[in-house]
Amino acid sequence: MWSICKKELGQFFSSLTGIIAIVVFLLVNGLVLFVFRNNILDAGYASLDAFFSFAPWILVFLCPAISMRSFADEYRGGTFELLRTRPLRPGQIVGGKFWGAFLIVCIALLPTLVYFFTVNHLASANGIDAGAAAGSYLGLFFLAAVFTAVSVYISSLTANAVIAFIGALVACAVLYYGFHALSQLPLVEGGADYVIELLGIDFHYQSISRGVLDTRDIVYFLSVTFFFLYLTRQNLLLRA
């Protein structure tokens, strides 16, 4: 499994496209936080709320961009047949692809810690709430895991990387915000709106971002991640 993970890491960072994707991610977040209108410096108080509200939508694009070639390129190039001849179980292949893509997303997120230290240093009085910031970062990593698992699954369905990207982008956006949007419809009431919102990622991300670790939120993120990895494994078995 780790050999596949290292292969994914090597292939990503050996291409200019991969590096550009991470640079664009950091650049867009930096511009929103420090340059564009209503940025942190104009707010007058030390907070990274704008970053933690905006970053999930960047991840909706970044995770599919990183994972879209996971299996699509294997199918298109005919190397998937060679991959199956290796002494690896389908679950190990899926795990290697997932961890390779997930670690790349984590590498993209780590430099954003500079935002925390910068804003905290610039604060004239009380700095950033470290507990809430830690919870929000943990939420981002959980989001990255879910979006990566979804993107790897979509990539396992097609040999076209562009289709894999678009499909994963739509799936991630719907899972993140679709249930919340559905719960706001006037026809959904009587407690059903809460149940529907509870199914969406946004509800659990907002919950964990408050800095309080709730077992239900952690179980939710892990369950959704493993569910899509299981679907990917089953899809590979069907192709065997």
From TrEMBL:
Domain of life the protein comes from: Bacteria
Intracellular or extracellular location(s): Cell membrane
Annotated InterPro entries: ABC-2_transporter_component
Record keywords, A-Z: Cell membrane, Membrane, Transmembrane, Transmembrane helix
Keyword Cytoplasm: no
PANTHER family registered for this protein in UniProt: MEMBRANE COMPONENT OF ABC TRANSPORTER YHHJ-RELATED, MULTIDRUG ABC TRANSPORTER PERMEASE YBHS-RELATED
Name of this protein: Gliding motility-associated ABC transporter permease subunit GldF
Gene: gldF
